[in-house]
Structures are given as structure tokens and as C-alpha cells.
Specification:
Elements: H1 8-21, H2 23-29, H3 34-55, H4 61-72, H5 80-89, H6 96-110, H7 118-140, H8 147-165, H9 167-172, H10 180-186, H11 195-213, H12 223-242, H13 256-268
Length: about 270
């Protein structure tokens, strides 16, 4: 029996949110099959809302996280995010353990839990972004073993890219997401004196991209979109290299034309279901 689709206004909000705050991802979403595109937008809205509540220090953040945790543990949905997940779960086999891990990542941010080692940073990246990759893979469908692990790696690669790109913004807000021991080894991430640190972080992100991209072919749907998104996001690392590894403070920006240039070859090499 066909289940009813979400109301149009909610899908419109989800699409608009994606296009406003995640322009690279929004570009890639245009390559998604229509059968899953709206659900991907809704999934993004769910995770993005929780992340924004936490980042903005919204007093409602913890209660909204608790509501999602309760749904993932088998209780009835009681918040907008948990209702969205419950609706998506009527159409896709959402992995609730991954949703719980995402909530643990949100709690890490709320508590400003320190990150001492690269292993702890990997765990953090898995919780806040690798889990999103795992849930996204469930929406797109997988057709071979190992796809979930590789989807997690791709999400982790993107999160590490965010961390490298946003060093100066995070420092300005009094937060650093780099591992403390790594910073102690290479020195404080000051403009003009952080090439070694940035090279090290880029290498770790690139290794995760390679692992994640190897799993794209295992997806049932949306392979072109995922490959394009990864290529465009990975290009942020190449832009950082072109701009001399953060010699100047500020966030690097990949031009729109370059995003399209790097995404096209990846997308075209994969068959679209």
C-alpha cells in the first residue's frame, strides 16, 4: 500500500533550507531521482535543525535531542524532528542506532567535550556526520556489504573538511575542533604558521574520501548525486592547498564554476538507476 507523502509546505521548507545553508549539497540533490529527492531534503532538515539548535545555544536543544533519542529507542514521536524521522521510517529502513549516535554527537557539542586525540576526533566526526551518511544510505538503499561503513567514512571526510575550512571562525567563537595533541605537535593554528597542521588534516580527510567514494557504487539510488557532492566538497581541500594552507585568515570559497567542473566527471562515470 502506498503511504502518504509529507505535506508540500514541509517539503518546500526542507528544500529551501538546503538551498540556503548547504548550497553545495543542494546542487548535488538536483541529480537525485525524484523518488527519493524530497525525502533527502526532509532528512537534511531534520539533522540540520538539531545541529543549528545546538550551535546557537538554543535552550530548546536538549529537549529536542531527547525527543529524537526517545523515538530511536522505540517510543512515539513527540517533536517535529522525531515526527519527520518516524514518517521517513515508514518508507525507508532508518537505522535507529545511527540516529542515537548522532544525538550523542549533539550532546558532545552541548557539553563542549574536549577532543584530545585523532581517534577521538574520528569518533566525533562519525557521530555528527558519519551517522548522517549511514542514514542517508538507508534512504538511498544499498546493494552490497560494507556500504554503510563507507557511507560513514564519506560523512566523516566532509566533517573533517568543515573543521579545516572553519578553523578561523571556530577560533573566533572560542572553540577548536582539532585534536589537542595534534595541535601540540604542530603548533597553534595561526595564519601563516599552520601549513604542517593543515597538510596533516587534509591527508586524513583525503583517506576518508577514498574509502567513502569506493562505496558509492554500492548504493541503489542517487549514486551520481553522492559522487558529485563528494567531489565538490573535497575540492574545498584543494582550494585550501591552492591558497597556501591557510596563510591568510578566513574561510576559503570554491567558485561555482569549479564545483561544476569537478562534479561532472564523477557523476558521469556512474550509472543512474
Amino acid at each position: 500500500m502506498l503511504r502518504p507523502r509529507p505535506e508540500t509546505s514541509l517539503v518546500d521548507e526542507a528544500r529551501a533550507t538546503t538551498e540556503r545553508v548547504a548550497r553545495t549539497f543542494a546542487l548535488a540533490c538536483r541529480l537525485l531521482p525524484r523518488s527519493v529527492r524530497d525525502d533527502v531534503y526532509l532528512l537534511y532538515l531534520t539533522f540540520r535543525t538539531l545541529d543549528d539548535l545546538v550551535d546557537e545555544g538554543d535552550p530548546r536543544a536538549l529537549a529536542r535531542i531527547v525527543a529524537v533519542e526517545a523515538w530511536a529507542a522505540g517510543e512515539a514521536p513527540t517533536s517535529r524532528e522525531s515526527c519527520l524521522l518516524a514518517d521517513l521510517a515508514t518508507r525507508h529502513p532508518l537505522p535507529r542506532d545511527a540516529v542515537l549516535d548522532f544525538c550523542r554527537g549533539m550532546r558532545d557539542d552541548l557539553e563542549e567535550r574536549p577532543i584530545d586525540t585523532e581517534e577521538e576526533l574520528d569518533r566525533y566526526c562519525y557521530r555528527v556526520a558519519g551517522t548522517v551518511g549511514v542514514v542517508m544510505a538507508a534512504v538511498l538503499g544499498v546493494r552490497a556489504e560494507g556500504a554503510e561503513r563507507q557511507a560513514a567514512a564519506l560523512g566523516m571526510a566532509m566533517q573533517r573538511t568543515n573543521i579545516v575550512r572553519d578553523i578561523d571562525e571556530d577560533l573566533a567563537s572560542g572553540r577548536i575542533y582539532l585534536a589537542r595533541r595534534t595541535v601540540a605537535r604542530f603548533g597553534a593554528p595561526s595564519p601563516g604558521a599552520r601549513e604542517g597542521l593543515i597538510r596533516h588534516q587534509i591527508a586524513r580527510a583525503d583517506a576518508l574520501y577514498e574509502e567513502g567514494l569506493a562505496g558509492v557504487a554500492k548504493l541503489r539510488r542517487g549514486r551520481r548525486a553522492v559522487a558529485a557532492a563528494a567531489a565538490m566538497y573535497r575540492e574545498i581541500l584543494r582550494q585550501i592547498e591552492r591558497e597556501h594552507y591557510g596563510a591568510r585568515a578566513g574561510r576559503v570559497v570554491v567558485p561555482h564554476w569549479r564545483k561544476l567542473r569537478v562534479a561532472a566527471p564523477r557523476a558521469l562515470t556512474l550509472r543512474q538507476p
